[in-house]
Design a protein that fits this description.
Layout (H helix, E strand, L loop, with lengths): L1 E3 L4 E3 L7 H7 L2 E2 L15 E4 L3 E4 L3 H9 L13 E4 L9 H16 L4 E2 L6 H7 L8 E4 L13 E4 L2 H10 L2 E4 L3 E7 L8 H11 L9 E5 L8 H14 L3 E3 L4 H16 L7 H4 L2 H12 L13 E6 L6 E3 L7 E3 H7 L5 E4 L7 H11 L9 E4 L4 H10 L1 H7 L3 E2 L20 E4 L15 E4 L2 H10 L15 E5 L19 E9 L6 H4 L11 H6 L9 H4 L5 E4 L11 H8 L5 E3 L4 H9 L4 E3 L1 H11 L5 E11 L4 E4 L2 E4 L5 H8 L3 H14 L1
Parallel strand pairs: 5-6, 5-8, 6-7, 8-9, 11-12, 11-14, 12-13, 17-18, 17-20, 18-19, 20-21, 23-24, 24-25, 25-26
Antiparallel strand pairs: 1-2, 3-4, 4-10, 14-22, 15-16, 23-27, 27-28, 28-29
Helix pairs in contact: 2-5, 5-23, 6-7, 8-10, 12-13, 12-14, 12-15, 19-20, 22-23
Length: 675
């Protein structure tokens, strides 16, 4: 017996799935929102109905998208939605306060759970109140939704159009990413934390090995990692290049959930929903599912990458400056005595109670020296309350720390405490990109709370104590998917079986959105025609000379990296480009492309062939030859050869036929109103 998923035909025999596929399976639906039983695999383009969707300050930008979907559009399921304010909480201008007021009023109108400014970083609030829960799929219009994986919740980012679609229909789409298994072995030294582990992974595997993958953390060493360590590591899988980072649901997870039930029933800071979300009934169901193996990867499950790391070889480490891809032992940097002007203990990465406690142990009875500013913000009001009860918050304040409200603040370059020109900062946050935390001529390093506190106290980058440096023991293996019969894709009415056009090759790997659509145009009101005329102007003005209506653009790897501006996709659509193919895409670019009705498909084999035969000396190569996409067989033909390409499944076709996700939503809402 055979049945069909959104993109493939399958035999009804059991299919081995990894944990990411198993969790995703529970939230995959058809176009009408009904659950699908066909097995989900990496690469599938599926419709999902997530447990929750979160938007923060950007709720203000999602509201008009939502309202544009129809005059009578309503919230499909207010319990599925969560709003919070955390990014610009230090901004008390009338303009920002008015924006915050409108978001709060909108939440009241639709009875959506709402976290006020100062209540906490929304990712933390989601986790501590059960809005993100083990075994569920939770999406957010923020790149650090990966953090939910620390409790065994599949968290992944979406863009604003997706959020509006979920508000209106409960659904959006997702391409199930390739999965990398990261097996942790050995015993983590006592002077190390989860932050040191993820800095090490980012530092030793720094060539995009896990770009656009989902990470599954496994191995015997996982059992010894606390939930706080796991949340930190899952959070920074974003900087490692991944779309999700998921830990197993084990005894540590279950024990944490059971304790949250007590907190939900007693804390005045808990949301009213927390009692039900952390109920004994829900916990019992979670335990039953776990014991049945529903949250355990099947034997024989496929992983695109298999990585191992011996935690006993991890040492207190520092990332930077201005990149997470460069890792140095804090012992080595200590000898260099790199002076620190500012230190930071804040963000959704490392400002939980255990982090504040670690810093307090180092600073107890001591003072931060003149010339060093040490900024501290708890991840949430609840975290701050816990730190105050333990006396740790008071210890940091006595040491001279500068308190900031619970929010993102300096981590995203907002509010007071930003790095000035020529300054050096060390931070327990997740990103140290050039200019992110202040002036572009400043230098920023990342480290654990202990190293940050010790550095603030010393006035230069150092460790709390001298550790023994070791060579990191790790492995990384890439697996090839077992070959099978290529399934035919079903075509919807209105979709032709082929797309043909002149091939224009833009070979550059990591071609960012600024190269495709210059930042200077992003906030200008250009017409579609004007947008088409400036496509690729930063990368190669010659593109405009050779590309014509109907041309098919083929790019390199990680095409469309960088910012989330959707104009980098729409400018090609307005140019008359019917299809973009690449070795791989930035996931955000791919989302923006499909959300605007522009198919974006991956074909590594084609790109490798073009690089070998056409070379990379020309920025834009006009082949003056046709390339044809065969939708039924998921292949492309060029130069008399055929290459496999990612399938354009049924749901993807629906979105493209509707002109994009917003069009699909409007059509769906219109059909529902007429039913």
């Amino acid at each position: 017996m055979m049945f069909r998923s959104n993109t493939r035909w399958y035999c009804s025999a059991p299919v081995a799935q990894n944990l990411v596929e198993k969790i995703a399976q529970r939230f995959v639906v058809d176009g009408k929102g009904e659950k699908l039983d066909s097995p989900v695999r990496s690469g599938d383009f599926v419709s999902i109905k997530p447990e929750r969707v979160m938007t923060h300050d950007n709720t203000a930008a999602v509201i008009p998208k939502f309202q544009s979907l129809g005059e009578n559009v309503t919230m499909h399921d207010n319990k599925q939605v969560f709003f919070g304010l955390d990014h610009d909480v230090q901004n008390t201008t009338s303009k920002n306060l008015e924006k915050y007021k409108k978001i709060e009023e909108f939440s009241k109108k639709h009875n959506v759970p709402f976290s006020k400014a100062g209540h906490g970083i929304v990712h933390q609030v989601m986790v501590e109140n059960g809005f993100a829960y083990p075994g569920t799929l939770v999406v957010a219009s923020d790149s650090h939704s990966n953090m939910y994986g620390g409790i065994g919740c599949l968290g992944t980012p979406v863009v604003r159009t997706d959020a509006a679609a979920i508000w209106a229909t409960g659904q959006t789409w997702w391409t199930v990413p390739p999965v990398a298994k990261v097996e942790l072995t050995g015993v983590l030294p006592k002077d190390c934390s989860g932050k040191d582990v993820i800095i090490t992974l980012c530092g030793v595997l720094n060539k995009d090995e896990v770009l656009n993958h989902a990470i599954e953390f496994t191995g015997p060493a996982v059992a010894n990692l606390t939930i706080d360590d796991r949340l930190t590591m899952a959070n920074m899988t974003t900087e490692w290049g991944a779309l999700a980072g998921v830990f197993p649901i084990d005894e540590t997870t279950v024990d944490w959930v059971s304790k949250r039930e007590n907190w939900a029933g007693s804390s005045k800071l808990a949301f009213p929903e927390a009692k039900d979300l952390f109920s004994s009934k829900r916990l019992t169901s979670l335990v039953d599912s776990t014991e049945k193996g529903e949250f355990t990867a099947d034997e024989g499950a496929f992983y695109n990458k298999e990585i191992t790391l011996d935690l006993s070889t991890v040492t207190p480490s520092v990332a930077g400056p201005n990149t997470v891809k460069k890792m140095t032992s804090s012992n080595v940097l200590s000898k260099q005595k790199i002076a620190v002007n500012k230190a930071y203990l804040l963000s959704c990465t490392n400002s939980r109670a255990s982090d504040i406690s670690a810093a307090a142990k180092i600073l107890s009875g001591k003072k931060v020296p003149d010339g060093v500013e040490f900024y501290v913000a708890a991840a949430s009001e609840s975290v701050k309350q816990e730190a105050e009860s333990a006396g740790d918050w008071q210890t940091l304040m006595s040491a001279g720390a500068v308190p900031l409200p619970s929010g993102c603040g300096p981590c995203i370059g907002m509010g007071i405490g930003l790095l000035e020109k020529g300054e050096v900062g060390i931070s327990a946050t997740n990103r140290n990109f050039k200019g992110r935390m202040g002036h572009p001529d400043a230098k920023c390093y990342l480290a654990s709370p202990s190293v940050v506190a010790a550095s603030a106290l010393a006035g230069y980058i150092t460790s709390p104590e001298t550790a023994i440096d070791k060579d990191v023991k790790f492995t990384c293996k890439t697996n090839k998917m077992p070959k099978g019969n290529t399934p035919d894709v079903k075509l919807l009415d209105g979709f032709g079986s082929t797309i043909t056009g002149r091939l224009v090759f833009v070979h550059e790997d990591n071609l960012n959105t600024d190269g495709i659509y210059a930042g200077k145009h992003t906030y200008s009101d250009l017409t579609p025609g004007e947008m088409a005329e400036v496509a690729f102007e930063n990368y190669d003005p010659k593109f405009q000379e050779v590309a014509e209506v109907g041309s098919i653009v083929v790019g390199g790897y990680n095409f469309g990296s960088g910012s989330s501006r959707e104009q980098a996709a729409t400018c090609l659509k307005y140019k008359g480009i019917p299809l973009v193919i690449a070795g791989s895409f930035s996931e955000t670019y791919k989302r923006n492309a499909f959300n605007n009705g522009l198919p974006a498909l991956e074909s590594p084999a084609l790109v490798s062939y073009l690089k070998e035969t056409l070379g990379t000396k020309q920025a834009t190569f006009a082949t003056y030859k046709d390339i044809t996409l065969h939708l039924i067989t998921s292949t492309v033909s060029f130069d008399g050869k055929e290459f496999p390409v990612a399938p354009l499944g049924v749901f993807a076709q629906e979105i493209c036929l509707a002109g994009g996700l917003e069009g699909w939503v409007s059509t769906r809402l219109s059909s529902a109103s007429q039913a």
